[in-house]
Amino acid sequence: MTDQSTRTTADAAARDGAEKPEPADRMSVTAHVLELPDGPLSYTAHTGTTVLREEPSGDGYQRAEAYAEVFSVSYVASGRGDQRPVVFAFNGGPGASTVWLHLGLFGPRRVDSGDAGALTPPPFGLLDNHETLLREADLVMVDAMTTGYSRPAPGAKPDRHHGFAEDRDLIASFVVDWLSRHERWHSPLFLAGESYGTTRASAVAGRLTDRYYVVPSGIALISPVLDFGTVFFTPGNDAPYLHYLPTYAAIAHAHGKHEGRLLQDVVDEAEAFAEQQYPQLLAQGLRLGEEEKRAAAETIGSLIGVDPEWVERVDLRVEHMAFLAELQRDRGLVTGRIDGRFSAPAGDGIGAQMETDPSIDQLAPAYTAGINQYLRTELEFSSDVVYEIMSSRVHPWSYKDFENRSVEVASDLARVLRKSPSTRVFVAHGYHDAATPFHASEHVLAHLAVPRETYEQRIRVEDYEAGHMMYCHEPSRLALSAHLAQWVRGDD
Fold first, then answer.
1. Positions of E strands within 291-414
2. What is d(CA 300, CA 304) in angstroms, rounded to the nearest whole number?
3. What pLDDT is recorded for position 13?
4. N or C terminus: fewer CB in 10 A for the chain?
5. Dist CA 389 CA 140 (whole Å)
6. What is the value of pTM for the model shown?
7. How many CA atoms lie within 13 A of 424 on its CB side?
8. Domains located in the chain, CATH noted
9. Confidence band (pLDDT; 50, 70, 90) for 118?
10. Among residues 460, 435, 401, 459, which one has the least CA distance to residue 225?
11. What's the pLDDT tens digit per position in 413-441?
12. Buried-state track 411-449, b at ≥16 Cβ within 10 A, e below 16
């Protein structure tokens, strides 16, 4: 507690224009042992905020000034040397902290959240993660600006970092700074992102390669979005309707709309329709005859589990938020967007769109409790600000670099692959992910400006029977963890 005399002195100093103290790193270093089936894994956790500095622009040179305090948790295995791989991981949003990858998949401890239809009730807890990627590489879980505990330096404006290019440059600077502070320049470098974090990972990979000549050994894209034009429903753009259709079919299967059929067979049929007949049907517009339109609506309705008359009323163009409200309307339920296997009672039985996302609503409490308890008790770090799990404070998010064109990082990813003959890409899709549909990602990857051999030999794609955060589905978590271990080892 601060006494009155201390506050008075501080106030007087501020009025007199006295210099404020320079911001400093705040770091907690703790030692841990994870008991694994094949023996103990000893590691050190470095938890806290790192001050980043930059050289001011202007006519005369000045010393670097603090501009950001970036929060991260670094896990460094004991006695493994300075050439061990390092994986830098982050989530997306924009506005999402990295708690999801941190406590859901990568870290040595994981949230006990349960899954769709079998949620773990409070009080929530943490479990040892025997499949942690720390077995293969050191880990750096980093939060973007205004997420987690990351904040601007005192006096700096946070919205400076709330944009595509600014966010990219901040994370790239953090990576370079971390390599220097920890003397790990000889370590193979890997980047892993989820959702908008895949947009970030591709852009950061390009920035590191172009600006610093730091080339990632690997890039993991979990639930990727690489070209917003493939997933954003905007007037005149039919691409999202095509790319979302296989996801709709998969979600319909999860809710019993394709009884007796295998999920893969349903997905294959939907993909074939989305790639062959569907583009021609939408391209005809008002030239499409009434009988043809009615037949198309029957086919689409059958594939995605909704009334064909509703499909016809929306002109064969099924927007995802509308679909999630419609699919289980007859049951009084709305369907999850992040993970279409989740459901919740509808607040509005005739709502045109879903009002909230059941999957986030049902999973976020366990992650919120988990990260706040974990940081304070096991990692011995606390702050006087809120750990922002999901923050709307980052908006509006600037895409000024993409004026008059679609936001895309496929060109960044392709450029890194062309420049670096050793960089490998791992891609993870959830069939039930209605936020970043798998077919859109497949389409973008198949159109990268790289040689065919690069596409076939250096890009691995895996699909899982779950949603955006496929690691809340235990079989998918185990499979994804094994695939990521192979990716780091280079035996994929």
1. 333-335, 343-345
2. 6
3. 44
4. N
5. 17
6. 0.93
7. 16
8. 22-229+364-489 (3.40.50.1820), 234-356 (no CATH)
9. very high
10. 435
11. 999 999 999 999 999 999 999 999 999 99
12. ebbbbbbeeeeebbbbbbbbbbbbbbbbbbbbbbbeebe
